[in-house]
């Protein structure tokens, strides 16, 4: 039984994956891989590592599709969280080699443009856009830096030039406000 993945059918595709339908996994891959590699690359900063992250993520999606629960969030969010977590784990495990070019990229403030561009790409009629717009600029940037770019709290604190404790509490409060707004 093959699944044709349309705009809102990732739930069905994951359910089919849980039942062993390889075609459903292939449909998810064909549909999402480009964006998933881009997400991973923003975090790990190297294309070959990003591809490795996505490959590992799809193995996890295949083996853990039965754990996805639609009542706990969207299928797309579940898939993207797996990729994001895999990319962050790669960084934490120290498997990423930093070159001089990569270190300079980490220090650049030009990343702020990418973060805000991601926010601007959201559908202006979406509830997420409205809720993010309700946050003050620094808190919105902090949330986007953490969840779009994959920055750690320490990296965010350094880039925004605010204390680490303040960064952590702002992000925690901003997430709480987002949850409340989206509920």
Automatic annotation (TrEMBL):
Residues 29-96 form the RNA polymerase sigma-70 region domain. Keywords: Sigma factor, Transcription, Transcription regulation. GO terms for biological process: DNA-templated transcription initiation. GO terms for molecular function: DNA binding; sigma factor activity. Pfam families: Sigma70_r2, Sigma70_r4_2. Residues 127-178 form the RNA polymerase sigma factor 70 region 4 type domain. Belongs to the sigma-70 factor family. ECF subfamily. This is Sigma-70 family RNA polymerase sigma factor.
């Amino acid at each position: 039984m093959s699944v044709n993945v349309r705009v809102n059918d990732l739930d069905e595709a994951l359910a089919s994956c849980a039942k062993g339908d390889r075609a459903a996994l292939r449909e998810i891959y064909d549909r999402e891989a480009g964006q998933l590699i881009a997400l991973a690359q923003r975090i790990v900063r190297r294309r070959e590592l990003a591809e490795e992250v996505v490959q590992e993520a799809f193995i996890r999606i295949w083996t853990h599709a039965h754990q996805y629960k639609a009542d706990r969030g969207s299928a797309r969010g579940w898939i993207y969280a797996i990729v994001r977590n895999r990319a962050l784990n790669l960084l934490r495990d120290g498997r990423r080699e930093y070159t001089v070019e990569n270190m300079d990229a980490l220090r650049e403030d030009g990343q702020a443009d990418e973060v805000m561009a991601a926010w601007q790409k959201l559908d202006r009629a979406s509830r997420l856009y409205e809720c993010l717009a309700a946050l003050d600029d620094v808190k919105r940037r902090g949330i986007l830096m953490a969840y779009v770019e994959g920055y750690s709290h320490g990296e965010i604190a350094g880039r925004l030039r605010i204390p680490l404790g303040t960064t952590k509490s702002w992000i925690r409060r901003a997430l709480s406000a987002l949850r409340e707004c989206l509920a």
